[in-house]
Specification:
Layout (H helix, E strand, L loop, with lengths): L1 H14 L11 E3 L18 E6 L4 E6 L7 H8 L3 E2 L9 E2 H24 L4 E7 L1 H16 L9 E6 L7 H10 L1 E7 L24 E5 L10 E4 L38
Parallel strand pairs: 3-6, 6-7, 7-8, 8-9
Antiparallel strand pairs: 1-2, 2-3, 4-5, 9-10
Helix pairs in contact: 3-4
Length: 267
């Protein structure tokens, strides 16, 4: 599982336009025009692709996250109201993330489920950084909703980096019941603390899901981490609000820094 997680860091950096030499064996399959490596998936300028490596018998579904300077992305990020969602019945999901996913869902889910069914022995990893982690989460659950046999499949993984909270407590439980999920968080990153876990008037609270890999000392030892449960008060939740810094949102994650990559080429 950690190999998939490490691969996810490189796949995510590739989404931001950097070439990752050790990913050359991957065959990149995108969701709209098969001859292109990247595709503009929606009006918020997200980029996503599906990568298949027959040699490694693995499929990676990756979503680009928030791009600095893109005001529309940040507007999407800060919407805190919630909606119900048929792919996670009985739960409430962040409306902004859900709206962003619905804009690209028709271009992703059917082709993805077909690919997974054609390669039933392959490991499938859903991954994303920042807002891309939220989209990866919704993509994984939509695939399971479309193909119920994928639920609790040992070959399916969700691994995200600097991901915000996506839904309520029931949503977090639903994710845990259906897919193995790991979230990597760097100490001091403010984004995983949003939306807040405390009750918001007339809205309610948000909760994280899955296991947390917590990089305690990103400045001196970014490859070292500890394993925590969701919302563990001894891990990323223990950092005082005054010590949160946006610079840590880019990592480093296991020595890979997405900060410089996390921007449009002309920025």
């Amino acid at each position: 599982m950690f190999n998939i997680c490490r691969c996810g860091t490189n796949i995510n950096v590739a989404l931001y336009g950097q070439i990752v030499d050790n990913q050359k064996s991957w065959k990149f399959l995108i969701t709209i025009q098969k001859e292109e490596l990247f595709t503009r998936c929606d009006h918020n300028s997200k980029k996503c692709y599906i990568a298949k490596d027959p040699e490694k018998q693995a499929i990676i579904v990756a979503f680009r996250g928030t791009v600095p300077g893109s005001i529309r992305n940040y507007i999407t990020d800060i919407i805190i109201t919630r909606d119900s969602w048929e792919s996670a019945p009985g739960t409430l999901v962040h409306r902004g993330f859900l709206d962003a996913w619905k804009q690209i869902q028709p271009q992703v889910t059917d082709d993805l489920v077909k690919l997974i069914r054609e390669n039933p022995t392959f490991q499938v990893g859903f991954t994303g950084h920042s807002l891309g982690g939220a989209l990866a989460t919704l993509s994984a659950l939509d695939a399971i909703h479309k193909a119920p046999e994928l639920a609790k499949n040992e070959n399916l993984f969700l691994t995200t980096f600097g991901q915000p909270r996506v839904g309520d407590k029931k949503f977090a439980k639903f994710v845990d019941e259906n897919i193995k999920a790991i979230r990597t968080i760097v100490r001091g990153d403010p984004i995983p603390r949003l939306p807040p876990s405390w009750p918001i008037p007339f809205i309610g609270s948000y909760k994280h899901f899955g296991e947390e890999l917590y990089i305690v000392n990103p400045d001196q030892n970014p490859a070292a981490f500890i394993e925590c449960s969701a919302e563990d008060p001894q891990c990323s939740e223990s950092v005082p609000l005054g010590e949160l810094r946006l610079k840590y949102h880019g990592g480093p994650y296991y020595t890979v820094n997405m900060g410089d990559a996390n921007r449009e080429p002309n920025e």
